[in-house]
Specification:
Blueprint: H1 2-14, E1 32-37, E2 44-50, E3 56-62, H2 67-86, H3 90-95, E4 107-110, H4 123-126, E5 132-135, E6 138-144, E7 148-153, E8 167-171, E9 179-185, E10 197-199, E11 221-226, E12 238-241, E13 270-277, H5 281-284, H6 287-293, H7 299-302, H8 304-318, E14 322-329, H9 330-343, E15 346-352, E16 358-365, E17 369-374, E18 377-378, H10 379-385, H11 390-396, H12 400-408, E19 412-420, E20 427-434, H13 442-463, E21 469-474, H14 482-489, E22 491-492, E23 512-513, E24 518-520, E25 529-531, E26 534-536, E27 539-544, E28 548-553, H15 559-562, E29 580-586
Parallel strand pairs: 1-6, 13-14, 20-21
Antiparallel strand pairs: 1-2, 2-3, 4-5, 5-6, 7-8, 9-10, 9-11, 11-12, 13-29, 14-16, 15-16, 17-19, 18-19, 19-20, 21-27, 22-23, 24-27, 25-26, 28-29
Length: 587
């Protein structure tokens, strides 16, 4: 594998210039490049080339314009360049008997078969990959929409033993077709000047994700990425260096033993599911969090870059098919999690909370599932506007204080309908949420979960009749709460004590019910949230027990592991919550 990539890169280098073009050795003539970017959704195409006088030209033309007009413009630009290169004034040209108007070079476009393209053909159709543009004696091979990198970025924090997942954004290319080469900084030697790099020849050195060994502690990394597409075309390579050196890892982490159960992706017919509140950076970095909530946690271990190292290694090691995350910062999703999990074969969806910087993320394994539809809602908006909540809305209007509190909350529900890639008749309704957090907000959570279950019923019973439901999230509800009991049993009485969770002034008695037969796949652990002043079970993976059953539950970390550094988060655990992981199968 390594020698194959090296050979391709060496061949790309022999092409000269930016090293783009067809990947068929010998198929390219030693021509200059005319790069054309033509996207159907945009009105104009762009053309970039370097004229014989050495001047670069970047033109934009209407896609519907006849080719002849574009060729005329190229001829005019080329003539102007020749005049400028000659450095003659108007007076000198007059004395030499030369015309003030420069002579226009012949400009023609030939298709792949060497035949001239009619000047009446629209630009969008004329400029095809492999065509040849002739400007006077100069000839250019047209590259239409060649692969190109728009962003290549390395994480700011690098830990030995933890995967480094670069952010790769490309146009007309896909990360799975790109070529990656990693380099390590050469240790300084006496008398040496400046940084020097040597190619990383470990087995992972040619992969998109690289896990630096302990031997690289103290050294920076460099990544060289050559964008490619499915047709084996390659664009100009881009290099990026890490901003800092590889640092030593924290040693044993709380999830290391759990990975022993998840070394491989689950078998066909099984689905490995994760639900995890990953602790949003927007909350971890407050003064209150550092001094009151998590005073026991080393400050560097609360930094988002450090925690992302742990989180990416933890999630990658579970080899999950479905991942439902809560408290996901928008920037963390875009810049860290989505690129990392994409490299491990998962597609990500994001739903931000109203007027917040964090929200929910659902990831699904691409070779197991495809996305049929999304049905995300904000609880407050849905309760106000959707007809299916009219009855609940009427009941709630009798309790204006509670109604207003519900409508002020920013909580959302993420609902995705997935179809099995290996067994298309099998579909899943995957829901993900994070309910209101306040300890006295049991009545608010009951209203929120009623809205959620009514919406899930609409999707899983009305839109997609009788498809199984997997409902994950941080419900901020212990097993003794009304919310848990309502989900688990299908109903809640109007006199349940949680209706007065914040005192008699905010009591709102109403009976509720839902049609699902749900069970907690991971049971009722002693805790899924463990901080200095509280521990309890708040997170669940609820499954439709009529259609799904539990194959295995991945054991949670031992109490000794959780409390090694007093509580969570810690230098060996990225969140104040613990991931729930289980394997399910269809009945």
């Amino acid at each position: 594998m390594w020698w194959g990539l090296r050979a391709v890169l060496q061949w790309l280098g022999r092409l000269g210039g930016a090293g783009a073009g067809s990947a068929r050795p010998g198929a390219m003539e030693p021509l200059d490049r005319a790069v054309v970017r033509c996207v159907p959704a945009e009105p104009k195409l762009s053309l970039r080339l370097v004229l014989p006088d050495g001047s670069a030209r970047h033109m934009q033309r209407d896609q519907t314009e006849p080719l002849g007009r574009a060729l005329s413009r190229i001829a005019t630009n080329a003539a102007k360049g020749r005049v400028k290169a000659g450095k003659k004034s108007k007076k000198q040209r007059a004395e030499d008997g030369e015309s003030e108007l420069p002579e226009l070079p012949e400009v023609r476009l030939f298709n792949r078969d060497g035949l001239p393209v009619s000047e009446e053909v629209p630009n969008a159709s004329a400029w095809q990959d492999g065509a040849v543009l002739q400007v006077g004696a100069a000839r250019y091979r047209v590259e239409r929409n060649p692969p190109a990198l728009t962003e290549l970025r390395l994480p700011r924090s690098l830990l030995a033993g933890f995967p480094v997942c670069p952010k790769v954004s490309a146009e007309f290319a896909a990360p799975q077709h790109c070529l990656f080469r990693w380099y390590r900084e050469r240790r300084p030697e006496s008398g040496g000047e400046g940084p020097a790099w040597e190619e990383e020849r470990e087995p992972e050195g040619g992969e998109r994700v690289f896990t630096p060994p302990n031997a690289l502690v103290g050294l920076r990394l460099k990544l060289r990425c050559t964008p490619g597409d499915g047709a084996m075309r390659f664009g100009p390579p881009v290099e990026v260096e890490s901003s800092g050196p590889v640092e030593a890892g924290p040693g044993v982490c709380t999830f290391d033993a759990r990975h022993l159960y998840t070394g491989k992706v689950s078998e066909r017919g099984s689905v490995r599911v994760i639900s995890y509140n990953i602790l949003a950076d927007t909350y971890a970095q407050t003064e209150f969090s550092r001094t009151v909530l998590f005073p026991y946690c080393a400050p560097y271990a609360l930094e988002v870059d450090y925690r992302q190292n742990l989180l990416k290694k933890e999630l990658a090691g579970y080899n999950a098919d479905l991942i439902c995350l809560q408290e996901v910062d928008k920037s963390v999703f875009t810049d860290s999690l989505a690129p990392a999990l994409d490299a491990f074969g998962l597609e990500g969806l994001f739903k931000i909370k109203e007027k917040q910087h964090e929200g929910l993320a659902t990831f699904y394994r691409r070779d197991k599932f495809s996305l049929l539809s999304q049905h995300d809602i904000a609880f407050s908006e849905a309760l106000l506007s959707e007809p299916l909540h009219a009855e609940l809305r009427d009941k709630l209007d009798q309790y204006p204080v509670v109604r207003d509190k519900v409508l002020q909350r920013s909580s959302v529900l993420q609902v995705s309908v997935l179809q099995s890639e290996t067994d298309p008749p099998r579909q899943l309704c995957v829901a993900n949420t994070h309910l209101y957090w306040h300890p006295k907000g049991g009545n608010i959570r009951l209203i929120q979960i009623a809205v959620a279950l009514a919406h899930i019923k609409h999707v899983a019973c009305d839109l997609y009749p009788n498809i199984p439901v997997i409902f994950c999230g941080d419900f901020n509800s212990t097993p003794s709460s009304g919310t848990y009991g309502f989900i688990n049993t299908g109903s809640i009485a109007e006199d349940h004590e949680d209706w007065a969770s914040n005192g008699e002034e905010e009591r709102c008695n109403m009976p509720l019910s839902h049609p699902f037969k749900l069970q907690s796949a991971c049971g009722e652990p002693a805790y899924t949230n463990y901080v200095g002043g509280f521990y309890g079970c708040l997170d669940y993976i609820f499954i439709d027990k009529n259609a799904l059953e539990v194959e295995q539950v991945i054991p949670l970390p031992s109490h000794e592991e959780v409390t090694t550094h007093q509580a969570l988060p810690s230098v060996s655990h990225p969140s104040d919550h613990i991931a729930l992981v289980c394997d399910l199968k269809w009945k």
